[in-house]
Protein 1
Amino acid sequence: MDVAVNLPYRECRTQPIALGILKALMPSLHQIDLAPKFNDIYLKIILGKARVLVEKHQDLETKRLAYILTFFYPLEAIFKIEDEWDEKLHELAYNLADLILGYDPKITCFSTYKNNIGLSLLVAKILAENQIKSIIGGPSILWKSHVYAKLYPWVSCFYEGEAETLFVKTFKRTQKGEKIRMVKAPPLLNLNASPIPIYDDLKLEEYDAIGVETQRGCVNRCSFCNVRFFPSCEIYREKSISRIVTEIQILKNHKREFCFCDNITNPTPKRLIELCKALEPLEIRWASGSFIPRISLREAYWMKRSGCFLAGLGVETLSDRLLKWMNKPINWKTIRETLANLKTFGIKVEISLIKGFPKERLIDTLISLVRLLSIKKYISIVSITPYYISQNSEVYNNPRRFNVNFKPDCDDSITHTTVYVKHENKLVKLLMDIAYSVIENV
């Protein structure tokens, strides 16, 4: 039978929604999520390779290098084996391919993103040696499907865009033996027309929570972000409240905890309160990692009443100066008030920060540290992400404005990000690293 596959690395907080959509579009596809079982093995290989290469990348810490390697390394290792870690990667790829071959597919559909695109291409190459066709789609197939088609000729088709519009047609054409190579699908204008995902072949108990989409796209225009240019996010769209409720009712018997896999769960106070009021009768527990830190006491009340137990806030920095450069629609006052409001109703909070944004100065880092210490009683988790230049973001398109010096053609064709290292004074860099080390352990 033909299969829809998800490979490591993928955080298994929620099930892969893309596989649920593919199954709903084509019920004959068998879903295979190999991330829960093989994530740890894959990361061990990546960390091993990072230790080997870290001396060649002294301007990058091992943690960041390992993050980069999760998607770069498999591409390099497709054509060469130089050490034990290359051998282990190929051994893993062959094991994954063998598991897929056990279903005797004629076509394998890969759902990909930056953390698994490299491994997916390597496994697709092994499958092609066994006369198995492959279709590769997902957020990683952006803007450059014509480039991928030239670089990786063993892939039958690179599918760029949302599955709902052209996937079934593309699959049937591939079945007939047509050489399509690449497809650019238009966005689905009405999200209510997307089929309700089906997860018959997945064990939902393997995941921390059940994921549900409430919208696609983003109303914000942050200067570091390129989400609004994704084929699935270039137009902001929402599912109706009744449609969201229907999806949850279908899935609530599996687990009581849900997670909204959104770009932004609270685009407006009105939308958030309407959603919460509709969720209250369902008696579920839910979380979202995509909140603007601009939540009133009334919104926090309805969040708690509807079952919200965790809110992830895209804070990025606690410096007002840097927030303006990032074009974030918030400031320190709204962040602090949001945290206090959520604390009032006992909702746990995770905040995300960006380390190394081009306009960040030592004073910005120190301000973030001091302010974080003053609000740490409101926060459960602090997550720090190294800054990368995202293709088509404002920083990418206007590098001079942000005092960034890089070549646009050096962005990786798979991840659409460019590694960015701030060339600070060594003392300043040391102090910033120390400050972030303290922040990470707050």
Note: The CA atoms of residues 170 and 176 lie 10 Å apart.
Protein 2
Amino acid sequence: MDDQDLQIVKTYGKAVPDYRRRNEENLFPRFETYRENIDGKYWFPTYTRADDILHFKNDDIRIAWLSAIPTTSSSSPRCGSSIPSSRSLHRQAPTAPED
């Protein structure tokens, strides 16, 4: 929480609960989002990251995702994602895209 404006700066959690039925699975990764004060008035999400393993009935799938929105006009937006195979589940760490 921001000390001055008392706004939420960091959010961590899941979008919705996992949904599991007989033949259906809809799983969601945990994510982390940071907000920044823009123009001294608005708080926008400028960075979101997810790095989680989804445990489906038939396989474990790792989701690694990063989205960064620049706060200056001289920067360009960055976004990256990967869904590695289950064989590389515990060997690969997510990295931020290069500028």
Note: The first strand starts at residue 10 and ends at 14.
Protein 3
Amino acid sequence: MSETANPTGGPVEGGGAHNEQVRVQHVSARVPERVDSIMRGTPMKRFGEADELVGALLLLVSPIGGQFITGTHINVDGGFTAAWF
């Protein structure tokens, strides 16, 4: 698989996008206290939508933008992670 996925024939390196802050119907509907807690810690004050992950994923798989990105993790969370720093 790595030879077809990587045009150089080398190994395919890992990368990922974390989407904890993307809207999930069952959480929003059943645990309002948890939703309130998440929103208090999220600078953008909203859940993301699934299509907002696309940019990060395209970067990781792009032969131009992501060709030297390996073993990293991109948080797509409306600033939730950055708010802790």
Note: The chain has a mean pLDDT of 76.
